[in-house]
């Protein structure tokens, strides 16, 4: 048997995007995992190499393994697949590390199976891997990682994912402070109830953001990037959140907020010049702290998971 | 002085649209008020005729009067304006009766003043008239009445109104049962707090609706026309709500809900054929009740308030 091998890029993603809590995400360039998938004679999914993270090799305990197995089982081919994982996105960074593994694994297995599923269909498999990491089948990172661009999760039951266009001059800048925030802790801070007034304002801002993305109205995008429900509660977990916010707003960012459940923060910007200034502003604030950090500057990744 | 006179059409509107509670509205054809505006030598605004409704003639007690006066005062011209009001939209019907008066008055006065303000600017004046009727400066009927099409109120402070495109084959059918629901009573039924889960689902549906309107994706529009926050509480005020809902869904409507604060109900439909069937379905349900009613079938009115 010819040992076919493919290499896959699994990009990072920003979920929530302020007013899009739990329903919106976007795919970015500049940082992502790599995975290698290889056909073998022995049936089943086997993880044979993991670099860049201390993760379990047992398929059923590994996010990529669970997602890969789900796709594999749906077809039950006569051959096996072994996987090498090269993690670049740090776990717990808030830019979709587990989703990159899950989406990449589902995509890679599907490729070796001869593409029986569309990318959209693969999301349903990938979120089973994501569930291992986050406790529920969240798709707000998985969907943009898989499809690229902005994605809206209108509904989970049934899963209804809508691709939203990304304006060409939109840039994202992500600041990742090297501290750990457990998703469970970030979830526990949320109030189970919110005021109707804030819920209405949040929905109006999300609608404005969607309209801004369809019309490439950067100012509307900026005006809409407000989070009434979550940021006020969660920002306490993120050191120097307000200082970074002030810095990037002064540097001309359209909007700023928490990426996923944090600790990463993100800014959206019009044009690369402003994105560079926002990058500098983030560096200035965090260079004066004792916390090590990374900054990623990126246009929107409109391809999502792809073959290398 | 030449006694210039104009006649204005002030269309009805559907606010809320399920997932768009308090932020979205749409303008319809087929029913609307008419108003006549006439320049006079005597300074000030004077309401000289009201037909079709029992409303006060005192400018400061009349929705149209307040809106007209606000625009008039901003310019303070050397002439006066007298107004005739021909109400066709019944007060308390839930299809923007007071907003039609307010938007029409602001528009008509602005025309006679030589159009110092844009239609969007006039909304800021018209909501002062609307506030006389509803107790607050709501724009979710005023904005679509003024501008036509679908309008999003992203924010009130500052007022930020976004025009959303209307797909060409979208039809609205409105059933107006001749019962009275006081807006205050409809408001009192609302809970001041909602679950975060429902708020997130509502925002996802609104985002889906906006995406569907931009892409003319009628099925997505239909899937998104869900109201998790308000309909479950308010539908009890509307006789035979569930029966009408079942009827119009069986007839092929994309979605169905409460128009404004009720008692009117609306359905959105793809194409006139389906709209006719939905019209019939509404008639069948309400013909078997003792409540008199009207049904209006209409394409989306994309012009808003206009000169006749």
UniProtKB/TrEMBL annotation, chains A, B:
InterPro entries: GHMP_kinase_C_dom, GHMP_kinase_C_sf, GHMP_kinase_N_dom, Homoserine_kinase, Ribosomal_Su5_D2-typ_SF, Ribsml_uS5_D2-typ_fold_subgr
Residues annotated as domain GHMP kinase C-terminal: 210-287
Keywords: Amino-acid biosynthesis, ATP-binding, Cytoplasm, Kinase, Nucleotide-binding, Threonine biosynthesis, Transferase
Source species, domain of life: Bacteria
Residue stretches making up the GHMP kinase N-terminal domain: 66-149
Subcellular location: Cytoplasm
Catalytic reaction list: L-homoserine + ATP = O-phospho-L-homoserine + ADP + H(+)
Primary location recorded for the protein, binned into one broad class: cytoplasm
Enzyme class at the top of the EC tree: transferase
Similarity annotation: Belongs to the GHMP kinase family. Homoserine kinase subfamily.
Name listed for the protein in its UniProt record: Homoserine kinase
């Amino acid at each position: 048997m010819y040992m076919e091998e493919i290499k896959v890029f699994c990009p990072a993603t920003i979920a929530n995007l302020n007013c899009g809590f739990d329903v919106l995400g976007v795919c970015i360039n500049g940082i992502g995992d790599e995975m290698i998938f290889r056909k073998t004679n022995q049936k089943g999914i086997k993880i044979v190499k993991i670099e860049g993270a201390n993760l379990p090799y047992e398929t059923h305990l590994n996010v990529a393994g669970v997602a890969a197995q789900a796709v594999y089982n749906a077809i039950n081919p006569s051959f096996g697949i072994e996987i090498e994982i090269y993690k670049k996105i740090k776990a717990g960074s808030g830019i979709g590390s587990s989703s990159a593994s899950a989406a990449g694994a589902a995509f890679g297995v599907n490729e070796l199976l001869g593409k029986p599923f569309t990318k959209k269909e693969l999301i349903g498999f990938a979120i089973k891997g994501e569930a291992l990491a986050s406790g529920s089948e969240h798709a707000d990172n998985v969907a943009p990682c898989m499809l690229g661009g902005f994605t809206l999760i209108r509904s989970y039951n049934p899963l209804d994912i809508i691709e939203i266009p990304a304006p060409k001059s939109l840039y994202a800048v992500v600041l990742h402070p090297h501290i750990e925030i457990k998703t469970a802790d970030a979830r526990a801070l949320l109030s189970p109830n919110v005021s109707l007034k804030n819920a209405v304002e949040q929905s109006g801002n999300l609608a404005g953001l969607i309209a801004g993305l369809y019309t490439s109205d950067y100012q509307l995008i900026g005006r809409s990037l407000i989070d009434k429900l979550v940021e006020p509660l969660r920002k306490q977990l993120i050191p120097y959140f307000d200082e970074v916010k002030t810095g990037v707003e002064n540097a001309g960012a359209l909007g700023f907020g928490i990426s996923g459940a944090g600790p990463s923060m993100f800014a959206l910007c019009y044009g690369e010049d402003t994105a560079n200034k926002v990058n500098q502003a983030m560096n200035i604030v965090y260079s004066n702290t004792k916390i090590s950090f990374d900054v990623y500057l990126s246009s929107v990744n409109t391809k999502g998971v792809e073959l290398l």
